[in-house]
From TrEMBL:
InterPro entries: TBL, TBL_C, TBL_N
Species per Swiss-Prot/TrEMBL record: Helianthus annuus
Annotated family: Belongs to the PC-esterase family. TBL subfamily.
Ranges where the record places region Disordered: 45-72, 95-114
Major localization listed first in the record, in broad terms: membrane
Name used for this protein in its record: PMR5 domain, PC-Esterase
Length: 483
């Protein structure tokens, strides 16, 4: 027993020392697990801590400053500062755009959305009632394949109620007695179009500019849109043309302002989208020309808009254009004879290149396709008529007819980098032989016999077919929002 007691301290001390080391180690690692940011190795100098092995040493970091990227606002706002130069619309001029950058909006009310190659402004306002009526939007719905259905809730605005319809399209005021042509609604095969909501449309336009560019067919659509929006305004005095101009076919530029929404709806005339000019012939007379490779002079106005709707087509079948003699021009060369269809192709490519170069991704660009003319018994300038037509076509070759110009438009848009939205209204308008002014493009009230020598079988009565085109624009915005 005595021998055992004298040897015990020599064995106990190492065991105690090992236990102390174990406990200290356990304490350190438990503190590390409670605070994962606490380093295992600590420095006694709080101002010069030991370096974290995951962070590069300052000496190894390049001193060259990275480029500063400054966000650019895409919302156009009316400014109260009189020292800032404004253009005739009251909006500050946009800067020239020479490339196609991908820029995202920083607006709180809207954001840029790319869906199915559509660039749209996504509004924060959503009407639950019509969203519930929408079915399978986006890829599942071809809005341009469908039929016209009778709807007694139409027209959207009553004939005679809108002060912006000029005489050429005001068929009821000009003596047309039948009314059924105003009672048709376009119904796609695969989905229901949302009911047009003018207030919601204007909310989407807040602080922006919508511009229709083209010939009188786009003026037809422009007047339709003004009427559809005007109908919803509680205070109609807050919608007006900024220069007090009345809409007539003789004037080529209109700007309508909506004060409560700080936005404008505009129209600029451009028959061909490329530049019209003149030349002096050998006899000293001035003859018109068309430069297929130069964009139209009105393009300076195009850059200022946020949403654009383009069209051209009907002027390409008129006399001097269709004949193509000493008319079409490239560079300084005037072709003695040139095919009008090929000229149309080259002009559209010029337009497409301009769009690719000058439109950024915060813009929304539509191209409205060719709308059908219905000259029974001849063409527009050879005695054809459409007088007396009161019902849409239900069968026949014209329903499936597709103009060569539309195939060219599709090809050009497919080749473009910028995602243009094609409003392909050709097939839907093929049905509507009943919708033209015919002899009611001028007031003929009281005439005993209506002359059919000058009939308009190209444009459309208002209210009427162009209202559906604007519903399709609205539906395009709704489709992007509900996906």
């Amino acid at each position: 027993m005595a021998t055992t007691l004298t040897r015990a301290p020599h064995k106990t001390l190492p065991i105690i020392f090992l236990l102390l080391v174990f406990l200290v180690t356990l304490l350190l690692f438990s503190k590390r697990s409670i605070d994962p940011h606490l380093p295992i190795y600590t420095s006694t100098d709080p101002y010069n801590p030991l370096p974290d092995p995951q962070i590069p040493h300052p000496d190894s970091i390049s001193t060259e400053k990275p480029p500063i990227l400054e966000p650019k606002s895409t919302d156009l706002e009316l400014l109260n500062n009189d020292s800032i130069l404004k253009n005739e619309t009251g909006f500050v001029e946009s800067e020239s755009v020479d490339q196609n950058p991908f820029v995202e909006s920083n607006s709180d009310e809207s954001e840029s959305v790319k869906d199915d190659d559509l660039i749209v402004e996504k509004s924060s306002v959503l009407d639950d009632e019509w969203v519930k009526k929408s079915v399978d939007w986006g890829r599942g719905c071809n809005m341009y394949s469908g039929k016209w259905v009778r709807d007694d809730e139409y027209p959207i605005y009553k004939p005679g109620s809108c002060p912006f319809v000029d005489e050429a399209f005001d068929c009821q005021a000009n003596g047309r007695a039948d009314e059924d042509y105003m009672k048709w609604r376009w119904q796609p095969d695969q989905c229901e179009l949302p009911r047009f909501n003018a207030t919601d449309f204007l909310v989407r336009l807040r602080g922006k500019r919508l511009l229709l560019v083209g010939d009188s067919m786009n003026r037809n659509q422009f007047e339709s849109l003004l009427c559809m929006l005007y109908e919803s305004l509680p205070n109609k005095s807050k919608m007006y043309e900024i220069n007090g101009n009345k809409i007539t076919k003789g004037r080529g530029y209109f700007v309508f302002k909506f004060e409560d929404y700080n936005c404008t709806v505009e129209f600029v005339r451009s028959h061909f989208l490329v530049r019209e000019g003149t030349r002096i012939n050998g006899q000293g007379n001035s003859n018109p020309t068309l430069s297929m490779d130069v964009i139209d002079k009105s393009a300076r106005r195009w850059k200022r808009a946020d949403i654009l709707v383009f069209n051209t087509g009907h002027w390409w079948v008129h006399g001097k254009t269709s004949r193509g003699k000493n008319y079409f021009k490239e560079g300084d060369y005037i072709y003695p004879k040139f095919d009008a269809v090929e000229a149309f192709r080259r002009a559209l490519k010029t337009w497409g290149k301009w769009i690719d170069k000058n439109m950024n991704q915060n813009k929304l660009v539509f191209y409205r396709g060719y709308s059908s003319a219905h000259f029974r018994g001849g063409e527009w300038d050879s005695g054809g008529t459409c007088h007396g037509e009161t019902d849409p076509i239900k069968t026949g070759r014209i329903i499936e007819t597709y103009p060569p110009k539309m195939k060219i438009i599709e090809e050009v848009i497919q080749e473009m980098r910028f995602p243009v939205v094609l409003l392909n209204v050709t097939r839907s308008t093929n049905f509507r032989k009943d919708g033209h002014p015919s002899v009611y493009g001028k007031n003929v009230t009281g005439l005993k016999k209506v002359s059919t020598k000058k009939e308009d079988c190209s444009h459309w009565c208002l209210p009427g077919v162009p209202d559906a085109w604007n519903e399709l624009i609205y539906a395009t915005l709704a489709a992007a929002q509900t996906n």
